[in-house]
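Worked Example 4.2. Read the sequence first, then its structure tokens.
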Amino acid sequence: MRSRRHVSWVLLATLAPLGTALSQGAPASAPGYDVERSQSVQNAPAGSVGRKTTDREHRVGNAEDTLGNELNYVLVFGGFARRCPTDEGIVGGDFEYSITYDATETTDDGEIRREHQARRLNLQLKGRVGDDAKLIDVEMNGDFTVERSGSAIAPTSERVEIRGRRFTPGPRGEPDMPAMAAAVEMTADISVASAILMAGTIYRDAEAEWSKLNECVEFSFDPPTDTEMLGPNQSRQVRFELRSKANGASVPWKSENIGRIRGIGTVEPTKVEQASSASVTLTYTASDRPRRGHGIDVAATSRAGAANGLWRIVDRYEGTFTQVSRTVGSIGIYTGNTVETLTGRLVWTSDNAGQHARSFGEVESSFYRPTAGEVTVELANVNTNSIAGSCETQGRQTFALSSLPPSVLQYLLLEIAADGRYKLILAITDYPQTPWEASSVCRIPGAGTTRQKMPAMLSAVEIGIQQGTLNAEQAVVGEMAPQQRGPRTITGNWSFKLPQQ
């Protein structure tokens, strides 16, 4: 900040050659004057870089030979450039450099003399960006004006048009000396040269912004990332399309770095040497053991910025679980025996790991939720009494997973750690809104047989939280130890595997 303010005051000092006798009595050190200086800063608006400063200096005479004299200097210096190029590779900007000088002098005989001078440079800037996301040059268009008036000076106004002038700052904002020299020759003033110097720095700052990956452009994929599962050595064509984040327009791109995530699998082609199209089709071939997160990694440049695109495959586990609940008991003359079997067929697909806390310390985990499947309930119940009467109830009903609300399925989760450990949560709450009917047959000695429908519902899955290690086939397989809950005994098992394609 100090260096920029110092530059401002140095530029302010360039007014000295412009002044008449009024200014000759007020050098930079200002002997005989009280001096008040201030600076205000206008920061870049949203979506732009740069800054604009306004420096003011007010001098009031305080000595015998300067009493009644007052001088005001105002320097406005700076500009802005957009952070992101347009989809056509254009970076708009502007720059202002103006110096105004107003003086009042009271002569020995009481005469008041005034003088006004102003030099104003207003530029519209247009940077051009190449397919390598590097600044090519900056074009300037605007006007430079010089105004003079005062008690002893006839009013004059001079104007120089600046059209189509270009400059190219160095890689770190170094000045384009030939362009600056040409500007001084054209205007006989340092204003345009000063603008070239500072605007070059602003545009290099903007270039640093649009060179950040995915700051101004981003890839879209067809098919979308994190949606496709590939079998061993299976291939998939993926269309990478680059778009401007500002308006969604397509932007041609090129890349010297098309690779595979973690170096697994293969991808073709490995380069796009010319930015001839916004859409490029790449082919990814999975390894013999494809897993979630494998895929394509593309670093690309364009006239609208730089991007990094990651297209990833997902895992899918498929299989079944079974829960058997047996209840045996007697009350008085009645004896009951009930067996309820819940069988689930589930398809687990990758879920956003960022939504879940890892269960195995610092070991990375992948998470899965069921996205398809069904649960089947089978009921077999026999009640007898001591007088040879009996009732038998049997039935079977299947419920699609998609028919159950998310609140009922919220506890189903599969976590697989990178070291092969897993954590499985199989828990579905009771849901009375799933009514169905079982068939009941009752035999009463001396009264015959009756048949009727008995109401039932989908009971809870109570296998709960289970942990284990993937087997040799990378499958999630296990069995729950029998759980005794009053007269009920619950057993369960599960088997979920990566499908073979």
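Now turn to a second chain, presented in exactly the same format:
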Amino acid sequence: MPGSEIVNPVDYKAVKKVSIDSRKIEKGCLFIAIKGEKFDGHDFVKDVIKKGASAVVIERKKYSKFEDLNVPLILVDDTTKAYGYLAYLWRNKLKTRIISLTGSAGKTTAKDMIATLLSEKFTVNKTLGNNNNHIGVPLTIFNTTKDHDVLVLEHGTNHFGEVAYTAEIAQPDYALITNIGNSHLEFLKDKKGVLREKISLFETTVKGKGTIFINNDDELLSRFNGYKRKITFGIRKGSDVKGKILEYTDDGKPVIELRYKKEKIKTEFNLYGEQSFKNLLAASSVAFKLGLKKKEILKGMQKLSSPDKRLNVNRYSNFILIDDTYNANPDSMKSSLELLSRIKIFKNKIAILGDMFELGETSLKHHKNLAAVIKRNKIGQVYVIGKMMKFLNTGLKKSGIECKHFPDRESLSGFISTKDFSDSVILVKGSRGMQMEYFVQKIKERIL
């Protein structure tokens, strides 16, 4: 590693595994002591040596605490960067093709869809959970072996420079940006800032002579059509992979069509929401490019499911519950409200909404703007919680829509426990910090 220094080099042996988790140390493992939000890996150095770690990477400034240890110690200025650099080295030993993706909405769903479709033809590894940051991306790369044909790697961000950093580690063969929306505006400021942060994934991939997948329907991304190695996808004419929703079933599922060169797929899609279709369109473009045939894509589509708390549509005897509580931003909120309106099986449309976070100075505007979306989609009942949702409630007061703002979780929970939800479609959605899944559980308890 550049700038590193090794103490006790005579005892150094080739390592079998790299780990930052002291609980998972095996004999012959290299442990990297990273300082996280809750724990500092340096506090566990002596423990991992007892467990059989053959070498440890520590920060140079902390060496005085470990001078008495008789194992190879690798001293670096920043153990987090050292971890990333080692992941970069491992990535370059792999023949695995890496498909990296990011975006304002849908990247986790699109990642899972790509992995599921490609599994019909290849041995695939993918990002698990929320491991999409400066620690999670290296972790996923280290969990990839020479047996994997493909790695589908998710890149997250909420500050400038994070995607560029993880993209340099991953060196993608293919890159996809799902969309550019109003997400993480607290630090990225506006859509142009979001674009500037996300587009670094394309720039790194192009520099490495990889192929990029361009969302032709996204106004900001469609401007990057000048790259030579590219595949465009979208509803717009002229897209390499073209898709459209032909109609919706009464329970809100889309009947879709996909086209690529001479291939044509027409089927009812088993996932809900326009955003799910857009994610499928993105995933299909990757599948087509990597050589999957119609039969393989259709087989893979049958195995697709929505990730937990992301547009999970559950039908009960006399109502439908849409659990979309994983997170929320203005674009995903709009899509979910449109889905709520689209399901025709039950008459009443009810939205239970919590605040959208990380919108910075634009937060008030985006919460107020939801009123127009709700009116346009004829949502009859809206119940909200959170400091910012109070402004949405005010904006709906004179609309004829039944609406109410709840000052705390207890009052909303009490309302849910007595509310008649029969003949209704109910959407529950809000940002992660609002923990709106609690109210989903309260609704489910009514039928247990």
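Notes for the reader: The chain has a mean pLDDT of 93. The two ends are 57 Å apart (CA to CA).
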